[in-house]
Amino acid sequence: MSAEIRKLLVMNAITSVVTVYIGIFVNLYIWQENQRIADVSLYNMAMFVSWGAAFAAAAKLLTRFSIRLPLCLSALCGGAAFFYLMTSHLDNRTLWIVLLGLPVGAMFGLAQAAQNLGVALQGRGSEFAPYFAAVHIIVQVVSIAVPIASAKVIDGFGYGGSFALMLAFLALMLVVSARMPRIRLRKPEDPAEARRFGQFGARLAFGRPGARWIVLSLMAAGVFMQFQNLFALLFTFSVTQNKLLIALLNVAYTLSSLLGLWLYRRFRSGEMRWLWLGNGLLAAGFLIALLQEPAALIVSNVLTTIGMFYFSTVWNAQQFRYIEFAGAASQASFLVWRECILIATRCALLAMTMSLTRLQGVGFVTIVGITIACMLVIPLVQSKAMRALQGSYPVQASPEAPSPVGS
């Protein structure tokens, strides 16, 4: 990987610390009050709406400024969120949850836009799979250290102490953002593309072979990724609310993902086979969760963690490979629309969960069925999209799965 891509990995490591903390302990902080699925769903919905708006705004900023600005703004939004957690106590809980989700979503959206657009503009086809696999490894390492350290800090100093610790990491992010490569969207030399520069239209985003299959893949992925993201947490919270035990369970999930990484490196196989395997493990995990026994919920999370590793490594690499030979304006438009479609379908799934009062019953089973159906569609439409693109562009879709580590 190039020096610029490595710098993006450093920033990713810093943001991952805050992301993992928020993903576990801010959701737990909200859940512990009334143990309502609707509260957690509302927070996540507010977060994703803000995330999408911030992502689009960051893409617009990158037509004039480098990725340093949105990364800096991301750190400031994160700081505002933790300051709000430390100081605000509203009687209207619904309003309090929404107002918390907005700066958290802005932080994620700004950071993701800067990093994804940076990778798309700076990376080459052979770097995408190693980059996303390295990102996944960083997340796994952070996922071992952060929950245990945070649980200890919360036990010793309360949630306020852990919020202050996250503010320190956001201050570090602010400093490191000034050292990031000066990657920005350059105005295309081609007059036709130059006229549409900064507009991020749908036609510019999806004016390539296989676009309809990519859109279907994005819509399906948003549903199942949000299900896995939300219910992996709620399954864990249903087993125990002891913070150290939650941290140790997350360590177990991380170790299972590292087992998946070892198998990924040990057995060379085609990309689509890994994608199908990942989806199969995810489907099995979702079905096992229907048993509602604590042991079944833990096994479910182990299977879906391994499955998500295989899915995310292949699917993200293929998505970025799809736009490798597009112009900068087309790449930016695609990534903005990609994020918006994922967020829209994530919110659709969250809306379905708002009426749930427990992790069982007809409503929950129906959501599981919809999720599995969406998930199994992805390898079919993804392969159609890549075949359509290969007929028009020399896309580097290697027959074997790329190594998840590289330089």
Walk me through this protein's architecture.
The chain has one domain (3-183, 193-390): MFS general substrate transporter like domains (Growth Hormone, Chain: A). The chain has 407 residues and is an all-alpha fold. It has helices at residues 3-34, 37-61, 68-87, 93-122, 125-177, 191-195, 202-205, 211-239, 243-266, 271-288, 294-322, 328-353, 362-390. It starts with a helix and ends in a 17-residue tail after the last helix. Helix 4 (93-122) runs antiparallel to helix 12. The relative contact order is 0.15. It contains 13 helices and no strands. Keywords: Membrane, Transmembrane, Transmembrane helix. The chain crosses the membrane at residues 9-30, 42-62, 69-87, 93-111, 131-151, 157-178, 213-238, 244-262, 274-291, 297-315, 362-381.
CATH class label: Mainly Alpha
Order of helices and strands: HHHHHHHHHHHHH
Largest sheet: none
Helix content: over 70%
Rg, nearest Å: 20 Å
Q: Please give the number of β-strands.
A: 0
Q: Which structural class is indicated by helix and strand composition?
A: mainly alpha
Average per-residue pLDDT, rounded, comes to 84
Overall domain count: 1
Instruction: Find the CATH superfamily.
Output: MFS general substrate transporter like domains
Apparent shape: globular
Beta percentage is under 5%
Low-confidence stretches: 395-407
CATH architect. name: Up-down Bundle
Alpha plus pi helix count? 13
| CATH fold-level topology | Growth Hormone, Chain: A
Terminal Cα span: 4 Å
